[in-house]
Each structure stands twice: as structure tokens, then as C-alpha cells.
Write a structure and sequence with these properties.
13 helices; 2 domains; 308 residues; D-Maltodextrin-Binding Protein, domain 2; three-stranded antiparallel beta sheet; ten-stranded mixed beta sheet; alpha/beta; single chain
Amino acid sequence: MILEKRVFLTVKDVSGLLHINDKKVYALAQEGKLPCTKVTGKWLFPKDELQLFLKEKARKTIQRFSTEFALSKQVILLSGSDDPVIPMLEGMFHSRHPDIALYSSSVGSGEGLRLLKDGFCHIALSHLYDPVTDDYTFPFIQDLFDTPDNLVVINLFYRNTGFLSKDQKVQSFGDIIRNNLRFINRQKDSGIRNQVDRIIATEGAAIDEIRGYETEAYTHFEVAYAIFSGMADAGIATEAIAHQTSLFFHKLFEERFDMVIVKDAFFERHIQTFVEFIRSDIFINVLQNMKGYDPRDTGKILFHKTNQ
């Protein structure tokens, strides 16, 4: 049997390799922060394992640097709720401010707020509604953030949302159940899913009687496509999507769609540039010419109802 030959480094070897003094090597070894073993009172470090360890540390450093670069003043990261206006906004804004790139991630309102809390985006997009307080966004940031007063909430627009269907007009979950229609839902923790569950409860409908309740879509276009292609019979999305796809639309509610920004970031140049663009006639005119949108508070800083 041939034994694998392993090369071990001494404390002095590692000290030279990492450009740190011997005492620091001893401390890292004792804390278990370096791959090592102790033989007859001496610390030894397996060379191959140490090299792999250093490569992994380097990879994480590069990954962290990339994230920090993305969060620099040249890039604005939006994360949260989906809306057909957002992709249009990205191009419009960049064409007028080519030194700043705008990127969005449609992960749902709740996840967007969590990503903002963890520092992975600049702006969270949310339209989460709380029927107890009859308010959007604020009840959720009050629960999620340790210091909610350190946030700025700005309205992006109001939009009409309701049932989409192809062959017959759906006005309630009762219609879906009675006609044995296939429903396509939105992902958990999204603003639409939040409203879906509220409406089902209000109607007194049974979730297990709704075909397709567990089928999830992440965007309004995905809902419309599923219905238009025949994979589903009904879903909930914006009036603008229904208008673009010629699907039947039954309005359920008008909802407020907000941006949430940490105050420190709010006063950065690139964020202020973006907010000013939101308030511009260019963006307001786009909303006014799209079906189902209302810009009455677009760009306005909002406050919790209890503070008004």
C-alpha cells in the first residue's frame, strides 16, 4: 500500500506566506481559523489544505468586492415587487443618465424588504397591504426593521389590479370554484399573494377547492401568458397587462406601489438623481398614458398614518 505523501508547513512558513507575524499565526491556529494540527507540541499546517483555504478566502473577498462595487454610486439596485413599468423605467432612466445603471429583481415585496434590510439593494419595491391598519408598506417595515424611522417611503404610483381571464369574465374566487377553472397564483410573500389570501378569506372560499392555487408565477406577464396560452383560466394581475394582452379584466382594487430607501442612501447623489427622475414630467406622462395607473402621489415622500 502506498501512503499519500502530505507536505506540512511550520509556523514560520505560514508566517512568511501570509505576511503576518508568528504570534498571529499561533492565534489563528488556536482559534481554529486555519487548517492545522498539533504534533508533539508544535503546530503543523497541511500545505494543500492551506492553499485551498486561501483560494476560498480570496474568492469570497472578490465576491464581497463585487457586491460593494454594485452598491457603489454607479449602480442602483431595485428589488421587490414586479410591475410592467419597471423595465421601461430602467431604459428611460439610463438613456438620460448614462453614468448610472438601474437594475431590478422581481422577488416579491416581502423578499425585497428583507434584501433591503440585509444591505443587498438600494431600493425595495413594495405594495404589501395590511387590512387591520388599512395601510400599505408601513406596517410591514415596522415589523421587519429594527429602526423603521431610518427609512424613507416614496410613492411610485397607484395601479388597478384584478382578475384576468380569457374566455369568460371572472369576478370572484366563487366563480373560479363553481366553474372548475384553473387559477394561477403568485409566489408566497408577494404583494399580490398577500391580497389573494385576504380576498379568499373575505369570500369565505376554501383554498383546497381552488384548482391551481399552488401554481406560482413571479411576474404579471407570466400570469397573462399562462392564461393566454391555455395553461390556466384565471389569475390576478394589473389592468395594464390585461389591456396589452386583450384579456378580460375585472378590477378588484387600486393599490399603492411604494419605494423604500434607507435614509443614508436616500441622500446619495445617484439616488437623488433617480428620485428626481421619478418626479419628472417624462415619467409622469408615461404613467398617465398607460392603462390603469395613477401618478397622483408619484415621487411624494409618505408617512405612517399614525404620524399624520
